[in-house]
Design goal:
By secondary structure, this protein is an alpha+beta fold. The chain folds into three domains: 113 residues, Immunoglobulin-like (Sandwich), CATH 2.60.40; 121 residues; 126 residues, 3-Layer(aba) Sandwich (Glutaredoxin). It is built from ten helices and 16 strands. The protein has a seven-stranded mixed β-sheet. Strands 1-9-8-2-5 form a five-stranded mixed β-sheet. The protein has a four-stranded antiparallel β-sheet with strand order 4-3-6-7.
Length: 381
């Protein structure tokens, strides 16, 4: 049994009274207390599926070509509407089975069913039990971090002497369970609790060939791919941070301005310059323009903004500049340009502030109030 919102652990309940009749059909029954009539399912294809029920009770079928990590959630989350009553359940989708999910009190939900899901129920209870002490220690550590009366030395001591040992014990228990149950398909779901890709791979290798090469292989592969993607993103962020670090001389470039004439970055030496990497397709970029215009007028002559449009057609770029009445300099960055790579741009908007000497002073990713605070600190001296 698990937390009923944004959790990676699963739980137990009663078996469905009807059975799947082929290897790809997953029959699902939901019983959700104090809930409405619409639920969404994601994890089988690119788009979520929507199902209609009544008073939190649903029965529907999913076609599962291969086992998958799934999510069952309320439509409000799809619209970005998160509240304390939002529902989100992470469950594996396995064809040829029946699954029942029960949420009685908004704090825990149970998963059970036939075959795989009956086994999954037992695995989940084990997982919940070994996490009790760790979760209590994690909660305590957060409380200590938020308590100004607790010294840093006390926090460090609690982390090293209490939290870390409970974390290591939990990790070991997971690995021991997998080694003791090498033919249990549902035990594969414990892999997502294991810290580190290498440790996960080692644990997966301890399963019997029937499990490693069976229907759970796709679920394992999805986790590996997700972790590898996260690691690549972290590496890209590290590389970007090096390219965008304060004191680094900004790479030189020449791009065409709004009138089609070449504009060299070097021509702006001698003044502060904000390189604003943006695009007409970027909602946060557009949202930031009114504040940017306000500050451009607040410190006239103190700095220049060079808008660098990315991933647009020239027509859409010019249309956006005109539509939003952007009074600063603009250049167009074609797809074949190396400017984004040289500056390590991984998100939009990215604002890189250059000093009069052409060196990077500060980089701010996203539409962050820190950008305007920095300008005030810089120009109100």
């Amino acid at each position: 049994m698990k937390t009923a919102i944004l959790t990676t652990v699963f739980a137990a309940a009663a078996v469905c009274g009807w059975a799947a009749d082929d290897h790809k059909t997953l029959k699902v029954s939901l019983d959700i207390a104090d809930y409405g009539d619409t639920i969404m399912v994601y994890g089988l294809g690119e788009s979520p599926q929507t199902f209609i029920g009544k008073n939190g009770k649903f029965e529907f079928e999913l076609q599962v070509d291969s086992a998958s990590n799934g999510i069952i959630f309320d439509p409000g989350l799809a619209r970005g509407e998160y509240t304390e009553n939002s529902r989100l359940y992470r469950v594996p989708f396995v064809g040829g089975e029946t699954m029942r999910l029960t949420d009685k009190d908004r704090t825990r939900y149970d998963v059970d069913g036939t075959g795989f899901y009956a086994e999954y129920h037992k695995v989940d209870l084990f997982n919940e039990n070994i996490h009790k002490e760790l979760n209590a220690n994690a909660k305590k550590f957060v409380e200590m971090k938020n308590d100004a009366s607790v010294s840093e030395a006390e926090r460090k001591r609690f982390y090293e002497e209490v939290y870390l040992p409970s974390f290591n014990a939990c990790q070991q228990a997971l690995k021991d369970y997998i080694k003791a149950n090498p033919t249990q398909e549902a035990a594969v779901t414990l892999l997502r609790e294991i810290e580190g890709l290498d440790a996960m791979r080692e644990a997966f290798a301890s399963f019997a060939p029937s499990v490693r090469e069976g229907r759970m292989r796709t679920i394992y592969n999805q986790w590996v791919q997700s972790i590898e993607s996260q690691e690549r993103e972290k590496e890209a962020e590290k590389a970007a941070a090096k390219k965008q670090a304060a004191g680094i001389e900004a790479p030189k470039f020449t791009l065409n301005d709004i009138n089609g004439r070449p504009l060299a970055l070097e021509s702006l030496r001698g003044k502060y310059v904000v390189l604003d990497f943006w695009g007409s397709w970027c909602g946060w970029c557009i949202k930031g323009f009114p504040k940017m215009k306000e500050y451009y007028a607040k410190y006239p002559g103190k700095f220049e903004i060079l808008g660098i449009d990315c991933s647009d057609t020239e027509a859409k770029w010019k249309e956006a500049v005109e539509k939003h009445q952007l009074p600063w300099l603009h250049v167009y960055c074609p797809r074949e340009s190396s400017v984004l790579e040289e500056y390590g741009i991984t998100g939009f908007p990215t604002k890189i502030i250059l000093g009069p000497d052409g060196k990077i002073v500060k980089t701010i990713v996203g539409e962050d109030p820190a950008f305007y605070t920095f300008l005030d600190e810089l120009f109100e001296k």
